[in-house]
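Feature request disguised as a bug report, sorry. It would help if multi-protein outputs had a clear separator. Right now it looks like this:
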Amino acid sequence: MEEMVSIFHALSKSLERIHKESCEEVSVVQSSILYEISLLRAPSMQEVAEEIGMDITTFSRQIATLVKKEFVFRKPHEGDRRIHIVSLTEKGEVTVESINVIIAAKLENAFVSMNDFERAIVTQSMHVLNQKLVAQSYGK
């Protein structure tokens, strides 16, 4: 089990470094928020906060910063003005795409020395591990 914990921490640090190096205009947390908004269709602030596992107060501060930097629009829900809907601006969309391209290139560079079989095994294993971790966090 110690080996798994060691691998977990090493992998976390490596992925965090890749993410950080990919973000010029935003923090890693803000990048994650932008990415989640890009995946969802007209999400509420609460939905995005829950997706990334952040409390709504901290999330609200991050959204305020992203609105100020012109990466995100925030508007009240038509049916319930207590709910705010968030969406990416054009600048936000371009930033998400740019970050995704850089991350993909860095990951591709890590995979370049692997043969097709190794790449498939690592990719499939990471997918299965993620599914199990998500299911575990939702108590399934």
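(second protein starts here, but nothing in the output says so)
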Amino acid sequence: MLRKIFNDHPQSVGETYPEHARSAFGFGLAMLQGGAKCLVHGIFPPLFKTSGSDVVRRLHERMVVHRRKAP
């Protein structure tokens, strides 16, 4: 049961559990950083003008465009 919980999704995207965890943490950190920059931009519009959209574009490239296919 635990093996199924921790392995099914990573395998469905062609990753091991550690690979998937590393990738997910990287995505989460990038989103937190991008979100913080968006909040600063909301208060000070001249700062971080494209940071939020840059993060979204970069993560989309990683997640959708360059995703490895499961065998």
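Even a blank line would do. Unrelated, but nice: The CA atoms of residues 10 and 19 lie 8 Å apart.
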